[in-house]
Amino acid sequence: MNTTSIMIVGVGGQGTLLASKLLGNVLIARGYDVKLSEVHGMSQRGGSVVTYVRYGDKVYSPIVDQGEADYILSFEILESARWISYLKKGGKLLTNTQKTWPMPVITGAAAYPEGIVEKLSAMADVVAVDALALAEQAGSAKAVNVVLIGVLSKQMDIPEEAWLKAIEETVPPKFLELNKKAFQLGRNAR
Predict the structure, then answer these.
(1) Percent of the chain with pLDDT over 90
(2) What is the pTM for the complete model shown?
């Protein structure tokens, strides 16, 4: 098997770390050699963050270079635009349509770009989902990460039960049902 490369991108505080942990747990349980990078970026200050997840029969490095990502799982639409050059030809961009205003927009020094999904769709295969609305439907805006894992799970050849087992093993019991619902809403989106 070739190595599959996934980038998880977002803004600090959105739960990218839990998403990468869930993904890593699913892949390890399936018997893959998995390499995960640490979160890179200003995660403590709401800045851009990225985690690399690579898996296959034998993986030597967690790093994904430009043009190598099979999937980019984006927690915020502007982050999708920032990292799109890392997607390989034929790869898939799975993105939340949520907008988190960066500091230049907040201060009025810049405007938030319009039409990002349309522009990205002209460049790649894009699955855009309002993960925030689905997370709120599940019971908490904080479940965006698990909604997006549900979206990703639909793209991968891994049984649904394996994902649910990883959620059970990773999420605290008091949040388990909420996260299972969030996962299902993401999996059934589109």
Answers:
(1) 75
(2) 0.92
